[in-house]
Amino acid sequence: MYINSHLHHYHGTEQQPIVSALSQLLLAMLFVIALILYIIAALRSNSNKPWPLHRTVCGCIGVVSAVIAVAGPLASLAHTNFVAHMLSHLLLGMLAPLLLVLAAPMTLMLKTLSIPLARRITRILKSWPSRLLTHPLFTALLNIGGLWLLYTTNLYSLMHESVVLYLFIHIHIFIAGYLFTLSLLYIEPMPHRFSFVYRSIILILSLAGHGILSKMIYVQPPDGVSLNQAKLGAMLMYYGGDMIDLLLIMILCSHLFRATRPRSDLSIH
């Protein structure tokens, strides 16, 4: 079931197939270029010390997930079908960021760059803007707050009328999801670190915000979305989001276990 016919039709990407295709191509190319650079860096790293294969696999699957969300049949259908839109949201804003954080691209980059350049990047990572961008509270507001703005205002309908806004929102969804995941899972070099308890509280509050929003969508659809589509999309957002969040929780708890487990003294006296 599609958007109600009596509601306004989108006049942006949907009515201009060439522009829509170009916007999809642009978004897809950003991820493909990033993956190519990642693989090149991994191959360079292998000449000294092998880069973990599982991180490369996570990076590849993460990029594929993001590309499926922004280009191709799913992305085209998402203009008129809210369930397809929500599936692309889960892929672009949750699954792809989690997998790409597990791929540890910053660590790989620091391993392959020259020492002077790596030191400059390390200084940037220690700066106050970096502290803000990786603060769990800030990233949670950026991530969950952005979704609330998208689905409780007219941004969702406007997104389909403006190619620029469409590109901006999709880039924001990915970056916000990536920074949020990065601020919770300390896989990359993180000079500004927060306790497990603090990160867990932020995660719990974010899960609550995500769940409440999905329930609001269930009863009060965004502009231009039928009630039946809203219900299906909200259920996908709620249960699909929980599945991805469960993976995040498991990884976070495994990090705590490794950090706090007793270490056996294997030295021989």
Which keywords apply here?
0% strand, mainly alpha, disordered C terminus, 269 residues
Describe the structure.
The chain is mainly alpha-helical and 269 residues long. It is 75% helix and 0% strand. It is built from twelve helices and no strands. The longest helix has 34 residues. The protein is globular, with a radius of gyration of 20 Å. The protein starts with 16 loop residues before the first helix and ends in a 9-residue tail after the last helix. The N terminus and C terminus are likely disordered.
In short:
The protein is mostly helical and 269 residues long. 75% of the residues lie in helices and 0% in strands. The longest helix is centred in the last third of the chain and has 34 residues, at 227-260.
Q: Would you tell me the structural class of the helices and strands?
A: mainly alpha
- Helical element count? 12
What is the molecular shape? globular
**How much beta, percentage-wise?**
under 5%
Count the strands?
0
**Which residues form runs of ≥5 with pLDDT under 50?**
1-15, 265-269
Q: Whole-number radius of gyration?
A: 20 Å
* Arithmetic mean pLDDT: 88
Q: Sheet bearing the most strands, described? A: none
List the helices and strands in order. Answer: HHHHHHHHHHHH
